[in-house]
Amino acid sequence: MNLPSLNTLRVFEAAARHQSLVKAADELCVTQSAVSRQIKQLESALGVILFERRNRGIFLTSEGQKLKTACHEMLSILKNTLRELKAEESQSPLVISCEPTIMMKWLIPRLADFKAAHPDIQLHLNASGGPIDFVKSQTDVAIRRNDFSWKQGYHAEPIGPEYVGPVVLAEQYAQGEALTSPTTLLHTKSRPAAWADWQHQANQAVNVAEDVWFEHFYIMLEAVQAGGGYGLSSVYMVGNDIRHRRLVAPAGFIADGSSYYLLSPIAIEADERVVALLNWLRQEMTATRQAVFAALKG
Question: What pLDDT, on the 0 to 100 scale, is given for residue 1?
Fold first, then answer.
């Protein structure tokens, strides 16, 4: 035989529990006649009488009592299963795609702070930059700089503006290697116009002795750390090095007009974990900028 619909069984269970069509209708936010109609259809489909109607009241028959017990057990199992599924979903990691350099140089060193502030949220990181397909990458959100056009329909919230500036190993700068003297400029193919843009925005020319190119941003920063020359860096990627005097930013940092964004295929506010992540990212980027600017003044 065909099983009755879940909605029909819910109506029956409510009427059986209350032994009242009126109270069942109030609980289910439907009319009394709708409850009565559903029960009559259920009795007709089963070929048994579930309720006796007398003195304007309803009373369960023995068959009705059996079905009430079965419905109660079924709905209890269903509710518990849904509760467990919801708990598992809330415990599943939030998968974040992040541009590799800012992930390694800025995000990962701060993850312990996020975990301390949000111990119930697990994060899983994927290193990736540029356009993203959330379905294919099985990613929940992405941290990107707005130097490309993302798909229409994506939800995007700004995290913080990008600030860039020339950086060099502290020992080299102490030995007199300034931007005004012939110097080696380190470039990255991921931001090929960075030096030209900075010179235009900062209204400052650079005395170039040699141009050296690297495939990735983080490799270029390693070359700076190794004393290879001047690199143009994001303030976020060298914040700790500036504060601990390992690197020097003789010209400071200026806003280059771009910003970091948190991208999501669904509304940010639809997931409390994403809202918490966004607020924390904004707070941390602001704190990083303030700490570096304070160190430069000092």
Answer: 60
State the Cα–Cα distance between residues 150 and 69, nearest whole angstrom. 54
Task: Decide the pairing of beta strands 155-169 and 123-127.
Answer: unpaired
Closest CA to 69 of 83, 52, 84, 50: 50
Strands (E), 140-191: 141-145, 155-169, 183-188
Matching residue, tokens 């020359």: 229
> Burial letters for 43-71: b for 16+ Cβ neighbours within 10 Å, e otherwise?
beeeeeebbeeeeeebebeeebeebbeeb
Separation CA 27–CA 221 (nearest Å): 64
Q: What is the largest CA-CA distance in the chain?
A: 104
The pair of structure tokens assigned to 11 is 């109506």
> What is the residue whose two structure tokens read 């995000």?
107
**230-234 and 247-248 beta bridge pairing:** unpaired
User: Cβ contacts of residue 208 below 8 Å, gap of 6+?
Assistant: 182, 183, 185
Q: Per-residue pLDDT tens for 197-251?
A: 999 999 988 989 999 999 999 999 999 999 999 999 999 999 999 999 999 999 9
Mean pLDDT computed over 135-161 = 93
Task: Please report, rounded to a whole number, the percentage of residues in the chain having pLDDT higher than 70.
Answer: 98
Q: Which residues contact 158 (CB under 8 A, 6 or more apart)?
A: 259, 260, 261
* 67-117 pLDDT, tens digit each: 889 888 888 888 878 777 766 555 689 999 999 999 999 999 999 999 999
Contact yes or no for 168/174 (Cβ under 8 A):
no
